[in-house]
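FORM 12-B: Structure-to-Sequence Request
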Protein backbone atom coordinates (compact mmCIF):
# COMPACT_ATOMS: atom_id res chain seq x y z
CA UNK A 1 0.00 0.00 0.00
CA UNK A 2 1.34 3.45 -0.86
CA UNK A 3 0.00 6.62 0.71
CA UNK A 4 -0.03 10.05 -0.84
CA UNK A 5 3.08 11.22 1.00
CA UNK A 6 5.07 8.09 0.04
CA UNK A 7 3.88 8.48 -3.54
CA UNK A 8 5.15 12.06 -3.64
CA UNK A 9 8.42 10.95 -1.97
CA UNK A 10 8.84 8.21 -4.60
CA UNK A 11 8.38 10.76 -7.34
CA UNK A 12 11.01 12.96 -5.65
CA UNK A 13 13.45 10.04 -5.71
CA UNK A 14 12.70 9.65 -9.40
CA UNK A 15 13.85 13.24 -9.85
CA UNK A 16 10.38 14.72 -10.26
CA UNK A 17 9.83 17.77 -8.07
CA UNK A 18 7.02 17.21 -5.60
CA UNK A 19 5.03 20.34 -6.29
CA UNK A 20 5.25 20.01 -10.05
CA UNK A 21 4.57 16.28 -9.82
CA UNK A 22 1.52 16.90 -7.68
CA UNK A 23 0.12 19.44 -10.04
CA UNK A 24 1.10 17.52 -13.20
CA UNK A 25 -0.41 14.27 -12.00
CA UNK A 26 -3.38 15.44 -9.99
CA UNK A 27 -4.50 18.80 -11.29
CA UNK A 28 -7.42 18.91 -13.69
CA UNK A 29 -7.05 21.50 -16.44
CA UNK A 30 -9.44 24.39 -15.98
CA UNK A 31 -11.82 25.00 -18.89
CA UNK A 32 -11.68 28.40 -20.57
CA UNK A 33 -13.06 31.13 -18.38
CA UNK A 34 -16.73 32.02 -18.58
CA UNK A 35 -17.81 35.64 -18.54
CA UNK A 36 -19.52 35.15 -15.14
CA UNK A 37 -16.36 34.09 -13.32
CA UNK A 38 -15.15 34.74 -10.73
CA UNK A 39 -18.23 34.04 -8.66
CA UNK A 40 -18.89 33.11 -5.05
CA UNK A 41 -22.10 31.51 -3.75
CA UNK A 42 -23.62 30.71 -0.37
CA UNK A 43 -26.70 28.75 0.61
CA UNK A 44 -28.42 31.71 2.24
CA UNK A 45 -30.73 34.49 1.09
CA UNK A 46 -30.56 38.27 1.11
CA UNK A 47 -30.13 38.79 4.86
CA UNK A 48 -27.07 36.60 5.47
CA UNK A 49 -25.85 36.29 1.88
CA UNK A 50 -24.50 39.80 1.51
CA UNK A 51 -22.68 39.70 4.85
CA UNK A 52 -21.22 36.24 4.22
CA UNK A 53 -20.12 36.78 0.61
CA UNK A 54 -18.62 40.27 0.95
CA UNK A 55 -15.16 39.27 2.31
CA UNK A 56 -14.91 36.39 -0.16
CA UNK A 57 -15.88 38.55 -3.11
CA UNK A 58 -13.37 41.22 -2.03
CA UNK A 59 -10.65 38.57 -2.35
CA UNK A 60 -11.93 37.04 -5.60
CA UNK A 61 -12.48 40.31 -7.42
CA UNK A 62 -8.79 41.15 -6.88
CA UNK A 63 -7.90 37.70 -8.22
CA UNK A 64 -6.87 36.54 -4.74
CA UNK A 65 -6.73 32.92 -3.63
CA UNK A 66 -9.96 31.00 -4.14
CA UNK A 67 -9.48 29.00 -0.93
CA UNK A 68 -8.92 32.21 1.06
CA UNK A 69 -12.13 33.65 -0.42
CA UNK A 70 -14.40 30.75 0.52
CA UNK A 71 -12.76 30.38 3.95
CA UNK A 72 -13.17 34.06 4.85
CA UNK A 73 -16.82 33.94 3.78
CA UNK A 74 -17.58 30.76 5.72
CA UNK A 75 -15.81 32.26 8.78
CA UNK A 76 -18.45 35.03 8.86
CA UNK A 77 -21.20 32.64 9.98
CA UNK A 78 -18.82 30.55 12.09
CA UNK A 79 -17.83 33.60 14.15
CA UNK A 80 -21.29 35.11 14.42
CA UNK A 81 -22.94 34.24 17.76
CA UNK A 82 -26.36 35.02 16.28
CA UNK A 83 -26.23 32.16 13.80
CA UNK A 84 -27.39 29.17 15.85
CA UNK A 85 -26.56 26.54 13.22
CA UNK A 86 -22.86 27.13 12.50
CA UNK A 87 -19.70 27.59 14.59
CA UNK A 88 -19.72 29.84 17.68
CA UNK A 89 -23.28 30.15 18.97
CA UNK A 90 -24.37 26.93 17.26
CA UNK A 91 -26.98 24.88 19.13
CA UNK A 92 -25.35 22.11 21.19
CA UNK A 93 -25.78 18.34 21.40
CA UNK A 94 -28.05 16.72 24.00
CA UNK A 95 -25.38 17.24 26.70
CA UNK A 96 -25.20 20.97 26.03
CA UNK A 97 -21.85 20.69 24.22
CA UNK A 98 -21.34 22.35 20.83
CA UNK A 99 -19.78 19.84 18.40
CA UNK A 100 -18.88 21.22 14.99
CA UNK A 101 -18.47 19.55 11.57
CA UNK A 102 -16.85 21.07 8.47
CA UNK A 103 -15.13 20.17 5.23
CA UNK A 104 -13.30 21.91 2.42
CA UNK A 105 -12.61 20.65 -1.10
CA UNK A 106 -10.24 22.12 -3.67
CA UNK A 107 -10.91 21.41 -7.33
CA UNK A 108 -7.47 21.86 -8.93
CA UNK A 109 -5.78 19.05 -6.96
CA UNK A 110 -9.01 17.26 -5.91
CA UNK A 111 -7.78 17.45 -2.33
CA UNK A 112 -9.99 17.77 0.73
CA UNK A 113 -9.94 18.03 4.51
CA UNK A 114 -12.54 17.68 7.20
CA UNK A 115 -13.21 17.81 10.92
CA UNK A 116 -16.08 16.27 12.85
CA UNK A 117 -17.30 16.53 16.44
CA UNK A 118 -14.79 19.34 16.95
CA UNK A 119 -15.32 21.08 20.31
CA UNK A 120 -14.16 24.53 21.44
CA UNK A 121 -12.88 25.94 18.13
CA UNK A 122 -14.93 28.73 16.57
CA UNK A 123 -13.82 28.26 12.95
CA UNK A 124 -13.92 24.55 12.05
CA UNK A 125 -13.61 25.18 8.29
CA UNK A 126 -10.20 26.77 8.88
CA UNK A 127 -9.12 23.65 10.76
CA UNK A 128 -10.47 21.50 7.90
CA UNK A 129 -8.33 23.54 5.50
CA UNK A 130 -5.25 22.82 7.61
CA UNK A 131 -6.11 19.11 7.64
CA UNK A 132 -6.14 19.33 3.83
CA UNK A 133 -2.98 21.38 3.49
CA UNK A 134 -0.81 20.24 6.40
CA UNK A 135 -1.55 16.52 6.78
CA UNK A 136 -1.67 13.38 4.72
CA UNK A 137 -5.17 12.64 6.07
CA UNK A 138 -8.68 13.77 5.19
CA UNK A 139 -10.82 13.38 8.34
CA UNK A 140 -9.86 14.33 11.91
CA UNK A 141 -12.49 13.93 14.61
CA UNK A 142 -13.14 14.79 18.25
CA UNK A 143 -10.16 15.28 20.54
CA UNK A 144 -7.69 14.54 17.76
CA UNK A 145 -9.16 17.35 15.68
CA UNK A 146 -9.05 19.73 18.66
CA UNK A 147 -5.43 18.79 19.51
CA UNK A 148 -4.50 19.38 15.86
CA UNK A 149 -6.21 22.78 15.94
CA UNK A 150 -4.35 23.74 19.14
CA UNK A 151 -1.09 22.64 17.56
CA UNK A 152 -1.80 25.20 14.82
CA UNK A 153 -2.51 27.98 17.30
CA UNK A 154 -6.32 27.88 17.56
CA UNK A 155 -7.75 28.86 20.93
CA UNK A 156 -10.11 26.48 22.74
CA UNK A 157 -13.14 28.45 23.91
CA UNK A 158 -16.66 27.90 25.19
CA UNK A 159 -18.86 27.97 22.09
CA UNK A 160 -22.15 28.01 23.97
CA UNK A 161 -23.56 31.53 24.22
CA UNK A 162 -25.99 32.61 26.94
CA UNK A 163 -28.73 32.52 24.35
CA UNK A 164 -28.02 28.96 23.09
CA UNK A 165 -27.49 27.73 26.68
CA UNK A 166 -31.01 28.94 27.55
CA UNK A 167 -32.51 27.33 24.43
CA UNK A 168 -30.79 24.05 25.38
CA UNK A 169 -32.08 24.24 28.98
CA UNK A 170 -35.60 24.83 27.65
CA UNK A 171 -35.31 21.76 25.45
CA UNK A 172 -33.99 19.63 28.30
CA UNK A 173 -36.66 20.72 30.75
CA UNK A 174 -39.39 19.80 28.31
CA UNK A 175 -38.13 16.39 27.24
CA UNK A 176 -40.35 14.46 29.62
CA UNK A 177 -42.95 14.98 32.35
CA UNK A 178 -41.45 12.01 34.22
CA UNK A 179 -38.09 13.56 35.08
CA UNK A 180 -37.15 16.01 37.84
CA UNK A 181 -36.85 19.15 35.75
CA UNK A 182 -39.55 21.79 36.04
CA UNK A 183 -40.10 24.19 33.15
CA UNK A 184 -41.31 27.65 34.15
CA UNK A 185 -45.12 27.66 34.24
CA UNK A 186 -45.39 30.43 31.65
CA UNK A 187 -42.50 29.23 29.50
CA UNK A 188 -42.79 30.12 25.84
CA UNK A 189 -40.21 27.79 24.40
CA UNK A 190 -38.66 27.68 20.97
CA UNK A 191 -38.26 23.95 20.37
CA UNK A 192 -37.23 24.05 16.73
CA UNK A 193 -34.72 21.37 15.84
CA UNK A 194 -32.36 23.41 13.73
CA UNK A 195 -30.28 21.98 10.87
CA UNK A 196 -28.93 25.28 9.53
CA UNK A 197 -25.46 24.79 8.05
CA UNK A 198 -23.88 26.84 5.28
CA UNK A 199 -22.27 25.96 1.96
CA UNK A 200 -19.86 28.41 0.34
CA UNK A 201 -18.84 27.56 -3.23
CA UNK A 202 -16.56 29.55 -5.52
CA UNK A 203 -15.07 29.66 -9.01
CA UNK A 204 -12.08 31.88 -9.74
CA UNK A 205 -11.33 33.64 -13.00
CA UNK A 206 -9.42 30.59 -14.30
CA UNK A 207 -12.47 28.40 -13.81
CA UNK A 208 -11.03 26.59 -10.78
CA UNK A 209 -13.66 25.44 -8.29
CA UNK A 210 -13.65 24.98 -4.48
CA UNK A 211 -16.17 24.66 -1.68
CA UNK A 212 -16.78 24.56 2.07
CA UNK A 213 -19.61 23.20 4.18
CA UNK A 214 -19.69 24.05 7.89
CA UNK A 215 -22.24 23.42 10.65
CA UNK A 216 -22.98 22.77 14.30
CA UNK A 217 -25.18 19.95 13.04
CA UNK A 218 -28.52 18.78 14.28
CA UNK A 219 -29.51 20.48 17.53
CA UNK A 220 -29.68 18.09 20.51
CA UNK A 221 -27.94 15.34 18.54
CA UNK A 222 -26.55 12.32 20.35
CA UNK A 223 -22.97 13.22 21.34
CA UNK A 224 -20.63 11.91 18.67
CA UNK A 225 -23.18 12.12 15.86
CA UNK A 226 -21.55 13.10 12.57
CA UNK A 227 -23.77 14.67 9.91
CA UNK A 228 -23.22 15.06 6.20
CA UNK A 229 -21.27 18.33 6.39
CA UNK A 230 -17.81 16.81 6.97
CA UNK A 231 -18.42 13.74 4.76
CA UNK A 232 -16.85 14.10 1.32
CA UNK A 233 -19.54 13.59 -1.32
CA UNK A 234 -22.42 13.99 1.17
CA UNK A 235 -22.51 17.62 2.40
CA UNK A 236 -20.18 18.83 -0.38
CA UNK A 237 -18.45 17.66 -3.51
CA UNK A 238 -16.19 19.51 -5.91
CA UNK A 239 -14.85 18.44 -9.28
CA UNK A 240 -12.72 20.89 -11.20
CA UNK A 241 -14.02 19.67 -14.57
CA UNK A 242 -17.65 20.12 -13.58
CA UNK A 243 -18.38 22.37 -10.58
CA UNK A 244 -19.51 22.01 -6.98
CA UNK A 245 -22.60 20.88 -5.07
CA UNK A 246 -23.36 21.45 -1.39
CA UNK A 247 -26.22 20.57 0.91
CA UNK A 248 -27.95 21.73 4.07
CA UNK A 249 -30.77 20.08 5.99
CA UNK A 250 -31.15 16.53 7.25
CA UNK A 251 -27.63 15.15 6.94
CA UNK A 252 -28.50 11.48 7.24
CA UNK A 253 -30.33 11.64 3.89
CA UNK A 254 -27.40 13.32 2.17
CA UNK A 255 -25.05 10.64 3.50
CA UNK A 256 -27.12 7.66 2.40
CA UNK A 257 -27.70 9.12 -1.06
CA UNK A 258 -24.10 10.42 -1.50
CA UNK A 259 -26.14 13.45 -2.54
CA UNK A 260 -23.49 16.06 -3.35
CA UNK A 261 -21.38 13.59 -5.32
CA UNK A 262 -24.54 12.53 -7.14
CA UNK A 263 -25.32 16.16 -8.02
CA UNK A 264 -21.87 16.71 -9.50
CA UNK A 265 -22.19 13.49 -11.52
CA UNK A 266 -25.60 14.61 -12.81
CA UNK A 267 -23.94 17.84 -13.98
CA UNK A 268 -21.07 15.91 -15.55
CA UNK A 269 -23.66 13.94 -17.52
CA UNK A 270 -25.23 17.08 -18.93
CA UNK A 271 -27.76 18.40 -16.43
CA UNK A 272 -27.75 22.10 -15.61
CA UNK A 273 -26.98 22.99 -11.94
CA UNK A 274 -30.70 23.62 -11.38
CA UNK A 275 -31.70 20.27 -12.91
CA UNK A 276 -29.03 18.50 -10.86
CA UNK A 277 -30.29 20.04 -7.57
CA UNK A 278 -33.84 18.95 -8.33
CA UNK A 279 -32.69 15.46 -9.39
CA UNK A 280 -30.83 14.98 -6.08
CA UNK A 281 -33.98 16.00 -4.17
CA UNK A 282 -36.01 13.56 -6.25
CA UNK A 283 -33.54 10.74 -5.60
CA UNK A 284 -33.84 11.30 -1.85
CA UNK A 285 -37.64 11.32 -2.07
CA UNK A 286 -37.53 8.06 -4.09
CA UNK A 287 -35.14 6.40 -1.62
CA UNK A 288 -37.63 7.21 1.13
CA UNK A 289 -40.59 5.67 -0.72
CA UNK A 290 -42.21 8.77 -2.21
CA UNK A 291 -43.43 12.21 -1.11
CA UNK A 292 -45.89 10.89 1.51
CA UNK A 293 -43.00 9.33 3.45
CA UNK A 294 -40.90 12.50 3.61
CA UNK A 295 -41.10 14.55 6.81
CA UNK A 296 -37.74 16.30 6.61
CA UNK A 297 -36.02 18.79 4.35
CA UNK A 298 -32.76 19.06 2.45
CA UNK A 299 -31.66 21.95 0.30
CA UNK A 300 -29.14 21.51 -2.49
CA UNK A 301 -27.09 24.29 -4.11
CA UNK A 302 -24.88 23.92 -7.17
CA UNK A 303 -22.37 26.02 -9.06
CA UNK A 304 -20.99 24.96 -12.43
CA UNK A 305 -17.45 25.85 -13.34
CA UNK A 306 -18.98 28.28 -15.86
CA UNK A 307 -20.64 30.17 -13.01
CA UNK A 308 -24.17 28.82 -13.52
CA UNK A 309 -26.20 28.44 -10.30
CA UNK A 310 -28.81 25.95 -9.07
CA UNK A 311 -30.90 25.68 -5.89
CA UNK A 312 -33.68 23.28 -4.91
CA UNK A 313 -35.19 21.89 -1.73
CA UNK A 314 -37.23 18.79 -1.04
CA UNK A 315 -39.92 20.76 0.80
CA UNK A 316 -41.10 24.34 0.48
CA UNK A 317 -44.09 26.59 0.08
CA UNK A 318 -45.02 29.63 -1.90
CA UNK A 319 -43.23 32.52 -0.26
CA UNK A 320 -40.94 30.06 1.54
CA UNK A 321 -38.82 28.94 -1.38
CA UNK A 322 -35.19 27.92 -0.81
CA UNK A 323 -32.74 30.73 -1.53
CA UNK A 324 -29.20 31.05 -2.74
CA UNK A 325 -26.95 34.12 -2.87
CA UNK A 326 -24.14 34.93 -5.29
CA UNK A 327 -21.65 37.71 -5.79
CA UNK A 328 -19.95 38.22 -9.16
CA UNK A 329 -18.99 41.10 -11.44
CA UNK A 330 -22.74 41.60 -11.87
CA UNK A 331 -22.98 42.36 -8.15
CA UNK A 332 -24.78 40.66 -5.26
CA UNK A 333 -27.86 38.62 -6.06
CA UNK A 334 -30.24 36.54 -3.93
CA UNK A 335 -32.28 34.08 -5.98
CA UNK A 336 -35.23 31.84 -5.17
CA UNK A 337 -34.85 28.16 -6.00
CA UNK A 338 -37.49 25.48 -6.47
CA UNK A 339 -38.98 22.79 -4.22
CA UNK A 340 -40.50 19.44 -4.99
CA UNK A 341 -43.05 18.93 -2.19
CA UNK A 342 -45.45 21.67 -1.06
CA UNK A 343 -45.84 21.76 2.74
N1 LIG B 1 -26.76 19.10 7.39
C1 LIG B 1 -26.30 19.27 8.68
C2 LIG B 1 -26.42 18.10 9.52
O1 LIG B 1 -27.29 17.28 9.33
O2 LIG B 1 -25.63 17.97 10.43
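FORM 12-B RESPONSE
SEQUENCE OUT:
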Amino acid sequence: MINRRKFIQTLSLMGISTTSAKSRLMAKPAKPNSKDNPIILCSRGEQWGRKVLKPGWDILRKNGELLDAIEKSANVTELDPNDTSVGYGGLPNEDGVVQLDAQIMNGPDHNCGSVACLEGIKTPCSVARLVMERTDHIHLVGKGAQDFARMHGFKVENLLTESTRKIWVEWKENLSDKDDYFPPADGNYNRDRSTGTINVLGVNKNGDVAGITTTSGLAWKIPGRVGDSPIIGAGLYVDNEVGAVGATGRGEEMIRSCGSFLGVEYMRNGMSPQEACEAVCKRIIDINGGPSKVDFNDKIVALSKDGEVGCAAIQGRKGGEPTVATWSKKGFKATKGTYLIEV
